[in-house]
Amino acid sequence: MMGLGSAIGAGLFLGTGVGIAKAGPAVLVSYLIAGFVVVCVMRMLGEMGAALPASGSFSHYARIGIGEWAGFVMGWLYWFMLIMVLGAEITGASAIVNDWIPGVPQWLIALVFVTFFAVVNLAKVSNFGEFEFWFAALKVTAIIGFLVVGVLLVFGLLPGTEPVGFTHFLGDGGFMPNGFAGIAAGLLVVAFAFGGIEIVTIAAAESEDPERAIATAVRSVVWRISVFYIGAIAIMVFLLPWNDPDLQDGPFVAVLDKANLPYVSGLMELVVVIALLSAFNANVYGTSRMAFSLARRGDGPAALAKLSKSGVPTNAVLLSVFFGFVSVLLNWLLPDSLLGILLNAVGAALLVIWVFIVVTHLRLRPKLEREGKLTVRMWLFPYLSYLTLALLAGFVVLMAFDADAREQLISTLVLFLLILALALVNSRRRAKKAAAEAEAAAAAAAAAAVEPAI
């Protein structure tokens, strides 16, 4: 169920309208390209995850496939990215609830949410799994319901509606109102929509049968993206003009308002809130497990590797929750602009993570094949892997020529170099520690050898 629900969060519910505004109906092309890349990345990650299940997931694989520095950089970059996403989700959910009860400050609503999910994640891991199961079930059911109502609206099969035809799909400037530049700009928005899907491989490592769990989740990625994302976006651009401001504010609710069904749009708004809270819950889990994995192998403070009696990395969870409270503070200081700031901080970091996954897979695949550990296989290896890498490089080039995205790219580059510097310092520290331990062991062995002679 996490495999089904992990990618249904802030990206789909909040980022979709922005992508449509940039590309028009041609945002479908943006989603198809980005979706293809994500399917390939997840297939590669699934291949490694099924063969070597670990709570550190791709950070662990980068460490053994590329080098210690790569595991350190990838792990902490992913941790930072999820912390940003965590803030975006709690901001989005509390803003919607604030519209329902305007007398209550947005920061107070966010505080209640953060406190509740802190308790959930500090309890045993089965509590987290139970919450995510029902959250995912609700999200999946809601999206399927949206698709059914949307198809009925497109064909005019609901009372008081008429078939829409291609009025909006090809009108208002045509299918590509902003040309190829619009598709490129849309790509940079929709890439973020797929962020979070990789948490599945982290969570599966704590399941009873991780190899089977990862394989099942990864194999469902293709139809999940096709139905949920492409289907939902197609309905939006068929039913509403691409430049309709309601699409940016809340595309799902805007479509359901056209159905004239009582309570349906309000119910969808509730589902959006639950989806965002689900993603927040999953990201608290994901950041804590990544920090735990990094600490356990010496790439983070040892305190983060401490486990409670129920097997929860308490300090790692508290660290994530602390940053959840920081986002609450930012909600108080920047309630209107915070969401945009956080969303912009994520896109480029996600591309770096995906590049690392592809390079790691290219390095590890021959070794895993020799050892006979492959239960999930990447298609057309290595050709499709190199094509995915080329497309990711294309995304980076697009970002370099887009003014707003260029700032993201530069910020992510600075962050990457900073974490890389920390990785090198950490590597030297570990080397000195290992040398000192070896020297102490040699001295102890020498003393032990001399003692019997005396």
Structural class: mainly alpha
- Inertia-based shape: globular
Report the biggest beta sheet as strand number plus sense, adding barrel if it closes.
Answer: none
Q: Tell me roughly what share of residues is in helical segments.
A: over 70%
Radius of gyration: 23 Å
Sequence stretches where pLDDT stays below 50 over 5 or more residues:
none
What is the number of helices? 20
Keywords for this structure?
454 residues, mainly alpha, Amino acid/polyamine transporter I, 20 helices, globular
Structure description:
- The chain has 454 residues and is mostly helical.
- It has one domain (2-429): Amino acid/polyamine transporter I (Up-down Bundle), CATH 1.20.1740.
- 77% of the residues lie in helices and 0% in strands.
- The longest helix is centred in the C-terminal third of the chain and has 51 residues, at 403-453.
- The protein is globular.
- The N and C termini lie far apart (68 Å).
